[in-house]
Amino acid sequence: MKNQRSIDLKAIAVNAMRKYGFEPVFPDSVIKEVNSIHAKPLPGLLQGTKDLRMLLWSSIDNYDSMDLDQLEFCERGQNGEIEVKIAIADVDAYVPKQSHTDQYAAHNGTSVYTGIETFPMLPDKLSKGITSLLPGNDHQATVIEYTVLQDGRFHPGDIYRALVSNKAKLVYEEVGNWLEGNSPIPQTVREVPGLEEQIRLQTEAIQRLKKNRRTQGALELNTIEAEAVMEGGTVKDLIIQRQNMARCLIEEFMVAANGTMVNCLGNAGIPMIQRVVRVPKNWEGIVQVAANYHENLPAEPDAKALAKFLIRQKAADPERFPDLSLTVIKLLGPGEYMMLRPGNEPFGHFSLAVTDYTHATAPNRRYVDLINQRLLKSVLDKVKSPYTDEELTDQSAWLSSREKGSKKVERFMRKAAAAVLLQNRIGESFDALVTGASEKGTYVRLISPPAEGRVMQGERGLMVGQKVRVRLLKTDPFSGFIDFVCTGIEKK
After folding, report:
1. Is the peptide bond preceding residue 24 cis, with omega within 30 degrees of 0?
2. Residue 76 CB coordination number (10 Å)
3. DSSP-derived secondary structure letter, 47
4. How confident is the model at residue 225, as a pLDDT?
5. For 425-489, which CATH superfamily applies?
């Protein structure tokens, strides 16, 4: 491959952030404020803080993640149940409401991960330092407890302040490959006494949770989002982040932890922000998609029936399943934040098959989680809620828009990186799958590298799911465009 024409992807990322309403650079007022912050003396136990530093806490995240929000620990109960503790970083202790740092975080609403450049919600001194639950230091946290029963249901438990200490920073790929029997036990797990047994107990807990949620109609969806592999400022490849048991472990634990948070705030009788995916208005479209696969879904929205259809299709055609997943996701409609008053009927989360759900486990990365942490503290301290109903309503709408904006930035940068990777391969041919075919255009995803683009010539008659041969016509990293001509269709 020829050398890539010099294109400043970081500059493109900054422009994309601004295009979608984000502030990509911390203001001087935030930098000055954060530079004056120092780690506080850990609170004394007389203040109602439990000392749980002796427990075998661990974290699982991406290999390069330093902004750690949560730790996990399990114990087996006397009657077959598994007691779960999730420790959440106490970010509010260092980012008070209405501070300069808080106002900046509220504006952006989330960290944005473009694969080229990360735009953190909080400065590194906080999110990768003082408020990160990295090993090597003791940390103050809020701990969420719940019990996983043998049938996979969970019972919400207590939430309280605690001192914690991370004993091992684990990596998704290493732990996932080990749990799935594809690699030896990771060195980090092997070197910490008792950690192998702890991770296996955690795995047993999440298998129970996952099986129960699947029975209730939780949807198994997985899309392909190719991430750029960077080396010296150059895009070397595109890789697909594979779902594995370690990622499932964290996801299941966080779903139950977030449900426990909603239970706590609901029992306290204060307004809160919930995370919802409404019952899909375009259920007819989902029924039609299933009919294209010779499957019949009920006329009325039915999560269990949809979940069973998706499980069958994933087993029957795993190569095309990501594209089916993306179609269903679009028809389901986006997740959103909504203010819920005590006693009001929750909208629920259709995709997760849960009624009460929020985001409360990643306060270093998402602003809504910081809001929920402050609401929780008001309950623990028995003081008035720090937010009015109007504030929570406004924040819900704003943070929903920020999440949509962040996804647009990340999607655009995936396309820009792919365009850079392919810019010196004009005229080459590739195998591809048709991922979209409508009046708006026909789109394909290359088998390797997994780049997506539009078919500008030869698109007539193409249908979603077809395997085709395409030739690269043009790339434009600044617009995120990759154009192809279709030169052949695989015969079945």
Report:
1. no
2. 13
3. G
4. 79
5. Nucleic acid-binding proteins (2.40.50.140)
Evaluate whether 152 touches 211 at the Cβ level (below 8 Å). yes
Q: Which two tokens stand for residue 182?
A: 């594809």
Measured CA to CA, the distance from residue 469 to residue 143 in angstroms comes to 53
In the DSSP assignment, the letter for residue 241 is: -
pTM of the model: 0.91
How is 284-307 classified by DSSP, letter by letter?
HHHHHHHHHTT----SS--HHHHH
Distance CA 340, CA 19 (A): 31
Q: Which of 44, 51, 253 is nearest to 165 (CA)?
A: 51
H helix or E strand, kind and range, residue 109: none
Q: How far apart are CA 71 and CA 89, in angstroms?
A: 9
Asked if residues 271 and 385 have their Cβ atoms less than 8 Å apart, the reply is yes
First to last CA, the chain: 33
Domain with CATH 2.40.50.140 in the chain: 425-489
Percentages helix, strand, coil for the chain (3-state, rounded to 5) are 35, 25, 40
**pLDDT digits 0-9 by tens, 34-74:** 999 987 776 655 467 999 999 999 999 998 899 999 999 99
How many CA atoms are closer than 13 Å to the CA of 354, on its beta-carbon side? 23
Structure tokens at 350: 């259709």
Q: Whose CA is closest to 153, among 354, 3, 393?
A: 354
**Per-residue pLDDT, 137:** 92
Separation of alpha carbons 255 and 264, rounded Å = 14
pLDDT of residue 1: 44
- What is the spatial distance between Cα 247 and Cα 256, in angstroms, rounded to a whole number? 15
Reading the block at residue 431, the tokens are 């195998």
Q: How far apart are CA 424 and CA 307, in angstroms?
A: 42
Residue 230: predicted pLDDT: 84
**Measured between alpha carbons, how far is 367 from 369 in angstroms, rounded to an integer?**
5
For the chain, residues with pLDDT lower than 70 are 1-5, 42-47, 492
Indicate the SS3 state at residue 209.
Answer: helix
How far apart are alpha carbons 169 and 145 in whole angstroms? 21
CA 66 to chain CA mean position, Å: 16
Q: For residue 3, what pLDDT is reported? A: 53
The span from the CA of 30 to the CA of 35, in Å, is 8
